[in-house]
Amino acid sequence: MADGTPAEQLAELLELVVEAYGLEAEVSIEDDGETLRGVVDGDDLGLVIGRHGQTIDALEHLATRIAFPEGKRDRYVEVDAGGYRERRADALEEQADEAVSEAISSGQPVQLDPMSSSERRLVHEYLRDSAEVETYSEGEEPKRRLIVAPASKE
Amino acid sequence: MKELLEYLARALVDHPDEVVVEEFDDDDGTLVLELSVGEGDYGKVIGRGGRTANALRTVVKGAAVKENRRVLVDIVE
């Protein structure tokens, strides 16, 4: 159990990781009431991100558990480093657009790659206003995937 | 690395005073970190489907890169 507000706990966690990884980087916290975001800025942040974003997603999972113990979460927790989330969002939106075209042309549901809950939420939100497809998730973490399916005709 | 694991485990559990990390070197030079926590706290460091345990391993491994070592995090009861 960590002391302090969720924002303080998130900052402390990220500062400790920056130090343990031997990096020169700054940690800042943003809170818009919906998402508590911890941002690491500096050079050479590859270690914080990890292969396929494995490390940054692991940090986000731990930060969520630490800042908001079970059942007490009232905001999303996001961890970002060196603009990774924005690059990732662009790539995910591109994948989502491709999945939409494929679902419409084939008339079949299309599976996206397994991704974290925050990334599934991003794609889900991105496609929410589409009249042509619907999205849902299938499978168990960490292999849970978003499915893009042609919208059922009503 | 030991300190990082201790910090993360203490922040996750209900009884931080019961968190213990033992550190030793394996024959092949791998650093082994054995984590034990209070009886009721294993779920907190393991998580659903082992997700939290995997996240702990991934984050601690990042710290091993700098020291050019292999590290193994073992959760022991």
Any descriptors?
A: 154 residues, alpha+beta, GMP Synthetase, Chain A, domain 3, Ribosomal Protein S8, Chain: A, domain 1, three-stranded mixed β-sheet, 6 strands, elongated, B: 77 residues, globular
Fold and architecture overview:
- The complex is a heterodimer of chains A (154) and B (77).
- Chain A is an alpha+beta fold and 154 residues long.
- Chain A has 2 domains: 6-82, K homology (KH) domain (GMP Synthetase, Chain A, domain 3, 2-Layer Sandwich); 87-150, Ribosomal Protein S8, Chain: A, domain 1 (2-Layer Sandwich).
- Chain A has helices spanning 6-20, 46-49, 54-67, 84-106, 117-127, and strands spanning 25-31, 35-42, 76-81, 110-111, 133-138, 145-150.
- Chain A is elongated.
- The mean pLDDT of chain A is 93.
- Chain B has a single domain, classed as K homology (KH) domain (GMP Synthetase, Chain A, domain 3, 2-Layer Sandwich).
- The interface between A and B is medium-sized, with 24 and 27 residues.
Strand order of the largest sheet of chain B: 1-2-3
In total, the number of domains of chain B comes to 1
What is the mean pLDDT of chain B?
94
CATH architecture of the largest domain in chain A: 2-Layer Sandwich
Structural class of chain A: alpha+beta
Strand order of the largest sheet of chain A: 1-2-3
Q: Sketch the major β-sheet of chain A.
A: 3 strands, mixed
CATH topology-level fold name of chain B: GMP Synthetase, Chain A, domain 3
Given the C-alpha coordinates, what overall shape of chain B results? globular
Spell out the blueprint of helices and strands.
The complex is a heterodimer of chains A (154) and B (77).
Chain A: H1 6-20, E1 25-31, E2 35-42, H2 46-49, H3 54-67, E3 76-81, H4 84-106, E4 110-111, H5 117-127, E5 133-138, E6 145-150
Parallel strand pairs in A: 2-3
Antiparallel strand pairs in A: 1-2, 4-6, 5-6
Chain B: H1 2-12, E1 20-25, E2 31-36, H2 42-46, H3 51-66, E3 71-75
